């Protein structure tokens, strides 16, 4: 997790997690989220946050090439799609994510793109 502060104010945050081992033994990580406080948008804090997350993953994997990265981005989140594109991610597929209602019944929800890249 990475937290960005301006003075004592939290203005951005991001997190990643290890997704598991692939069969070719290269690590794979998911970018769980990158977010910025609404009033701080447009100041490239998402770029700073993403850069810090990727630097941490690089350090954690001893700067090995070919480390897999992925994230799920809502189809209507143009700002996030542009952010991931700037860091070399490409949309691999679109998935409709099921939503579980209070009764336990599932229904189809929103479309999310699976964005992938490699370090």
TrEMBL record:
Name the Pfam families on file: Acetyltransf_1 (PF00583)
**Superkingdom of this protein's organism:** Bacteria
Q: Which InterPro entries match?
A: Acyl_CoA_acyltransferase (IPR016181), GNAT_dom (IPR000182)
Return the protein name. N-acetyltransferase domain-containing protein
Q: Where is the N-acetyltransferase domain?
A: 2-89
Q: Which organism is it from?
A: Brachybacterium muris UCD-AY4
Q: Which GO terms describe its molecular function?
A: acyltransferase activity, transferring groups other than amino-acyl groups
Which Gene3D superfamilies does the annotation name?
3.40.630.30
């Amino acid at each position: 997790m990475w937290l960005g502060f301006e003075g004592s104010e939290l203005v951005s945050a991001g997190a990643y997690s290890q997704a598991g081992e692939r069969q070719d033994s290269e690590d794979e990580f998911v970018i769980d989220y990158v977010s910025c406080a609404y009033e701080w948008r447009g100041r490239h804090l998402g770029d700073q946050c993403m850069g810090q997350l990727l630097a941490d993953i690089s350090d954690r994997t001893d700067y090995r090439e070919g480390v897999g990265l992925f994230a799920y981005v809502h189809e209507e989140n143009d700002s996030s799609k542009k952010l991931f594109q700037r860091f070399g991610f490409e949309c691999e597929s679109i998935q409709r994510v099921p939503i579980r209602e209070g009764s336990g019944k599932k229904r189809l929800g929103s479309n999310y793109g699976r964005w992938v890249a490699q370090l």
